[in-house]
Design goal:
Number of strands: 4
Largest sheet: 4 strands, antiparallel
Structural class: alpha+beta
CATH class: Alpha Beta
Helix content: 40-55%
CATH topology: Alpha-Beta Plaits
Distance between the termini: 43 Å
CATH superfamily: Lrp/AsnC effector binding domain/regulation of amino acid metabolism (RAM) domain
Radius of gyration: 18 Å
Shape: elongated
Number of domains: 1
Strand content: 25-35%
Length: 110
């Protein structure tokens, strides 16, 4: 299954609820991901523009999108992003394909 990096920013009401009653949200994320046929690898809180970062495997891009839609529709987060991750084995395959097809591409010139 492909890997994905997802980042989410808590909405103010979610942050307020977590401060008032601290909870480990990893299990909730794991349950949602597994319900979509995926596998959660890591779940972290982070500093910066986003509050949560996770690494998961999903069967496909549609599943990754469904996760984002489910979480976004909940109102618990005010933003997020999903980044597909490429393993080194996949990267080498892509490099090999690029090398074989490079003659087909002509860059723009003046």
């Amino acid at each position: 299954m492909p890997y994905y990096l997802q980042r989410f920013k808590y909405a103010a009401n979610s942050m307020k609820a977590l401060v008032a009653k601290p909870k480990n949200r990893r299990d909730a994320a794991k349950k949602l991901i597994e319900a979509h046929g995926g596998k959660l690898h890591e779940y972290f809180l982070q500093f910066g523009a986003y509050d949560v970062v996770l690494i998961a495997e999903y069967p496909d891009n549609a599943t990754a999108t469904a996760i984002s839609l489910t979480v976004g529709a909940s109102g618990a987060f005010s933003g997020g992003e999903t980044t597909p991750l490429i393993t080194m084995e996949e990267a080498v395959k892509a490099m090999t394909k690029a090398g074989k097809a490079k003659a087909a591409y002509k860059p723009p010139t003046k």
